Amino acid sequence: MNYNIKYIDELSGTTASQRTKNNRWLAQQGEQTRIEAVKLQTDLVRQHRKQQQGQTITPEFLYAMHALAIAKMIWAETAQQRKGSKLSDEEFEKMQEIRIDRIKSKKRKKASPKKELIRVRFLELIKKLRERNLSWREISEYIATHHKTKLTHSYIRESFIELSRTVINEQNSEETSNG
């Protein structure tokens, strides 16, 4: 793979280290902001393609447009911090959306190995045991005895309720999307 890095540098106006830094910035953004970056990249490709009048689009060209789009987004976000720069209402609104999206994307739930174990291995078993009127303590004891896995009765109950809600919500969303 011999790509023309100089062409990418010239077209995007960035260096390899700047592109690396900018791509890290983009990776920290939420899904909406990443989509906005692709939208801006598409617009830039269209603009530059008109200037190049029918030349074939190379991977270097697309990558340069991607780098340019991210650089423009970062520049616009930091514009209000620079002395004497004023953002229009539309630009300010867009920056707020990007920042809100970033905050939302940072809310990640920590994966729970025990809850995943209950979901994968024991959810159906717990349903059957509950249908046979076993208490949560009895279910906990059953799983400990026959599956060699210790789970507290309260954790089994909480996880079962949460996982059951998730399954019901997924089924409802499938029904509405199928029409």
Description:
The chain is an all-alpha fold and about 180 residues long. It folds into 2 domains: about 100 residues, no CATH class; about 70 residues, no CATH class. The protein is built from 8 helices and no strands. The longest helix has 26 residues. The chain is elongated, with a radius of gyration of 26 Å.
| Count of helix runs | 8
Shape: elongated
What assembly state would you assign to the polypeptide chains in this entry?
single chain
* Mean pLDDT over all positions: 83
User: Can you count the beta strands?
Assistant: 0
Largest sheet: none
Element-level helix/strand string: HHHHHHHH
Helix content percent band: over 70%
Distance between the termini: 48 Å
Could you tell me the strand content as a percent range?
under 5%
What is the rounded Rg? 26 Å
Structural class: mainly alpha
Tally of discrete structural domains: 2
Low-confidence stretches: none
Characteristics of this structure?
elongated, mainly alpha, 2 domains, 0% strand, 179 residues
Quick overview of this protein structure:
By secondary structure, the chain is mostly helical. The chain has helices at residues 5-12, 16-27, 31-52, 59-78, 89-106, 113-131, 136-147, 153-178.
List the SSEs and their pairings.
Layout: H1 5-12, H2 16-27, H3 31-52, H4 59-78, H5 89-106, H6 113-131, H7 136-147, H8 153-178
